[in-house]
Amino acid sequence: MAVLFRYTVLSSENIDALVLALIVLAVFAISKDRNGTGLLLETGLFIIGARKIDYKKILKLYLAIEIPLTLITLMAARLGIIENLVYHRGEQVRMTFGFVYPTNFVLHLMFIIAAWIAIKEVKCTFLELGMITILVVFLDKYCDARCGEICIILIVLCTAYLKCRMYFAEKKGKKYKTSKLLNFLCLCVPFLGAGIMILLSRFYDPSKGWMEKLNSITSTRLFLGKKTFDLYDVKLWGQYIEMHGGGGTTDPVPEYFFIDCSYLNILMRFGFAVFVIVMLLLSIMIIKSFNKSYLMAMIVVICIHSVIEQHLFELHYNIFLMLAFANFNVQDNRKKAFIKNKNNNGLE
User: Fold this and answer.
1) Structural contact between residues 96 and 54, judged by C-beta atoms closer than 8 angstroms
2) Can you say whether residue 75 is alpha, beta or left, with left for phi > 0 and alpha for psi between -120 and 50 degrees?
3) CA pair distance 239, 252, nearest whole angstrom
């Protein structure tokens, strides 16, 4: 009610935002009623409730909560207060460090790193990037969560690239701005990722060698996606799908069935209407971040990550989903540094 009051009374001057917020809330509420997932309505309220709040404040609050909780979990696992589950992939040992699965631990770190860089922007140093790279080596040795590790490396590479481009631009007295082509390609990423994975899952055929190879690389995600389409139809408002994952226990799961791809997960469980809304929200975030290169890079990496993992719609992982209605019109660190350098040059 407080969120609706904020829109209808305190922010009633923007009818477009009010209509979009009501559509998001209505779609999420109807889908919640059909599949019984309370997460839907709560997520919708958080998303529309973030309107006009500076996106960096949201990310800072996320870090203020997430970092201490992660450290407490690590300490509790080390002291034996909570169990540090150990899995095996062949001869590879995979530790959870107190989380339900090795992948979950790595993903918490990935989203923390993404939020940290989105806040610091150009002030993120190469020393920090080097430390993050060393962290990935540690994670590869003890967790072997390949998708999360690859995405952390992508974050490091994107950040290093942007830092170099901005440095050389500022040396010439200019500001680096991403090209229209790059912006367009970034905008296409979630649609390409969703479309390719959904189609590959729908038409997966193990008799085709390249498909079977791709299925093996993605840890049977194409097989499980195909099984999802065999058992369920796409519904407008979603449906209840019982899933049995391997997290939280090292015992074999007799009837393992899990929809890992975020886009397929949202489409099949929450329905086509919610899927369209989520894709719209991702598009809004990317378009609004055209002038926030670091933030756009983080969002795009998360969209890539969501092709393999299911955490796109989970705010306790992906806090970036809250940013669609947030205020992006805040002076970034790059602009502050540029103005400072320009003023200093003028004084010399």
Assistant:
1) no
2) alpha
3) 27
